[in-house]
């Protein structure tokens, strides 16, 4: 494994910790500021919306500098936002700190995905991307439960101060290990936006919004669900988050490995399983053992979609991947914001703390339908391409060019790659 992937994983660890740790300390933050749980949920939605806005904006601005310099700037921005969150005297400033930190999130993972994919052979791109995201999953095994435990014992402000320190470590890791490769190959903003002419890029981002949004519908309000419905103590939530993180870690590795072999079948399986798990969670949330098992499955199945979705976007926008990659990271967080908001709506409507699971199942089920549509369109496009190629092959060839096999093999390679 290239050491540069380790640097990306370190940065992902810090970002993953701050993204998810708010769920574990949400009741404490709400009580400290005197707001309701659904209102405090805006700290999740606000962060997610900041990622959506920051991903394309900062990625476009970063086309004028090297990817390494841009990654360092993003980690600095992340540190500043978390420091503001730790010191914020009002809920509004706390939300502002979350948004500042979130601006770095999408661009970091978007640019990082391109860097990770460029460090390995073409047939290992999804695995390389999953190794970078491994830092995010490890954050859910170590960083988030640890931050939750510290927040419950010493106060949530200490948690965010530690997260800021993690950002500094990530910044040093990027500075030390990421190679200086110069400016991105495509520095034209118009060229980067051209990738969005492909309907498959839009379908992939819609799958991302809905599929991963299904996970966040359940996980945003996991603390009140587990304490009020399942009967766990607040201290036990830390270990439940560890189980969720272990599931994410395993799902990420499996998703990366199988996406390199059979991308769309992997995506179909993960989305179908996630929809079923979220439906089951409505019932299993009333039993401590079954709730813990289901929570782990949701983490695994939800994160198994990340490498294939990210690789699909990179494949479809191969001529200008940086902005499309970052935009897809923004799509993950748009799903987070949508799911957190919808979860708060059904809770505020009096439907109970398990109601967000139904919301999540509907979102992920819709993502599965879009994945089937994308695969069908992909097959139709390739079938049309083969018909055209076959027609060309039937025409008489000049005597000096006895066969066209090299041309056919050149055009068939991307078809095989995308079909996976």
From TrEMBL:
SUPFAM superfamilies: MFS general substrate transporter. Residues 392-401 have a biased composition (Low complexity). GO terms for molecular function: transmembrane transporter activity. This is Inner membrane transport protein YdhP. InterPro entries: MFS, MFS_dom, MFS_Efflux_Transporters, MFS_trans_sf. It is a multi-pass membrane protein. It comes from the Bacteria. GO terms for cellular component: plasma membrane. The chain crosses the membrane at residues 41-61, 73-93, 99-121, 128-146, 158-178, 199-224, 236-255, 262-283, 289-309, 330-352, 358-377. The gene is ydhP_1. Keywords: Cell membrane, Membrane, Transmembrane, Transmembrane helix. Residues 388-420 are annotated as: Disordered. Residues 4-382 form the Major facilitator superfamily (MFS) profile domain. The keyword Chaperone does not apply. It is found in: Cell membrane.
């Amino acid at each position: 494994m290239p050491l540069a992937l380790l640097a990306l994983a370190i940065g992902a660890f810090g970002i993953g910790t701050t993204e998810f740790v708010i769920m574990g300390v949400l009741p404490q933050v709400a009580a400290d500021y005197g707001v309701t749980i659904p209102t405090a949920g805006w700290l999740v939605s606000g962060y997610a919306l900041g990622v959506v806005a920051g991903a394309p904006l900062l990625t476009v601005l970063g086309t004028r500098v090297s990817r390494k310099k841009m990654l360092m700037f993003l980690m600095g921005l992340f540190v500043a936002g978390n420091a503001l969150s730790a010191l914020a005297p009002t809920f509004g400033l706390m939300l502002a700190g979350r948004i500042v930190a979130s601006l770095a999130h999408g661009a970091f993972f978007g640019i990082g995905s391109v860097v990770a994919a460029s460090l390995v052979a073409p047939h290992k791109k999804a695995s390389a991307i999953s190794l970078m995201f491994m830092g995010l999953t490890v954050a859910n095994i170590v960083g988030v439960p640890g931050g939750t435990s510290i927040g419950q014992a010493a106060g949530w402000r200490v948690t965010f101060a530690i997260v800021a320190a993690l950002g500094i470590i990530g910044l040093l890791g990027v500075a030390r290990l990421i190679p200086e490769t110069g400016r991105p190959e495509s520095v034209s903003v118009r060229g980067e936006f051209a990738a969005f002419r492909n309907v498959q890029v839009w379908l992939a981002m819609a799958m991302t919004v809905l599929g991963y949004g299904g996970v966040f519908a359940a996980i945003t309000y996991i603390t009140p669900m587990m304490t009020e419905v399942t009967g766990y103590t607040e201290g036990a939530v830390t270990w439940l988050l560890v189980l969720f993180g272990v599931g994410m870690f395993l799902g990420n590795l499996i998703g990366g490995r199988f996406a390199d072999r059979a991308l769309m079948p992997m995506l179909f399986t993960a989305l179908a399983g996630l929809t079923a798990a979220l439906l089951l969670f409505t019932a299993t949330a009333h039993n401590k053992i079954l709730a813990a098992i289901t929570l782990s499955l949701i983490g695994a199945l939800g994160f198994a979609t990340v490498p294939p979705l990210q690789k699909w976007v990179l494949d479809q926008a191969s001529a200008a991947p940086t902005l499309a990659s970052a935009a897809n990271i923004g799509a993950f967080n748009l799903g987070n914001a949508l799911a957190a908001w919808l979860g708060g709506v059904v809770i505020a409507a009096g439907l109970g703390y398990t109601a967000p699971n139904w919301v999540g199942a509907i979102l992920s089920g819709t993502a599965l339908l879009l994945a089937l549509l994308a695969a069908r369109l992909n097959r139709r496009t390739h079938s049309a391409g083969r018909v055209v190629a076959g027609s060309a092959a039937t025409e008489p060839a000049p005597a000096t060019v006895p066969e066209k096999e090299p041309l056919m093999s050149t055009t068939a390679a991307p078809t095989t790659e995308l079909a996976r």
